[in-house]
Design a protein that fits this description.
By secondary structure, the protein is of the alpha+beta class. Helix content is 32%, strand content 29%.
């Protein structure tokens, strides 16, 4: 590909209970800093179990990306849409994205986010939010390229195991406004 971009051969599908160990293996390859925005430590088996429980209960829509070139179809990315259908913000979904460091910049994150957008649209969500540390410049740029805008910066909001605190940026995407603009300009949403 032009510019030295890595060719991606992946498939995206729903996260299933049989994927638990493969997702745990994927998460173990990530740097702790990549996980700080999640609120919970995904390296703990109980957290992945709770994630699967929330998927089964319908509170989280979750996807995995598998490397089709790997013999074991290794997990190289995940995306989740977290909702609280019983809360005051039932119209809002929180987007969470994890991509293997060696796959960043090759379009995998964008593919996962576009799949999450389709799920959010199907769920009738009016707004999406995402959290990340501001120094995750690649993630910030990706989300902004898809219409997310900075909404808040929480100083010293998350703390790594090393005791260092990090700021947390909150970005949001007004899905209803974007859909209305696309409709007004005759853009096909599919």
């Amino acid at each position: 590909m032009a510019g030295g971009a890595q060719r991606m051969n992946h498939t995206i599908r729903r996260f299933e209970p049989t994927d638990r160990d493969r997702v745990a293996t994927f998460v173990a390859t990530l740097d702790e800093h990549d996980l700080l925005f999640l609120g919970r430590d995904l390296t703990h088996p109980r957290v992945i179990a709770a994630w699967l429980d929330a998927v089964a209960e319908g509170w989280i829509d979750s996807l995995i990306a598998e490397d089709l070139d790997a013999t074991d179809k290794a997990v190289v990315g995940t995306a989740a849409l977290v909702r609280d259908p019983l809360g005051w913000s039932a119209h809002v979904g929180e987007v969470r994205l994890l991509v293997s460091p060696d796959r960043r910049g090759a379009g995998l994150g964008r593919d996962l986010l576009e799949a999450i957008f389709a799920i959010a649209h199907g769920r009738g969500l009016a707004k999406l939010s995402a959290r990340m540390t501001p120094d995750q410049t690649g993630s910030v740029a990706l989300f902004e390229s898809l219409g997310f805008r900075a909404e808040a910066l929480l100083k010293d909001q998350v703390r790594g195991r090393d005791g260092h605190s990090h700021d947390l940026a909150i970005l949001s995407h007004d899905a209803a406004r974007v859909a209305a603009q696309q409709k007004a300009f005759g853009v096909d949403e599919t």
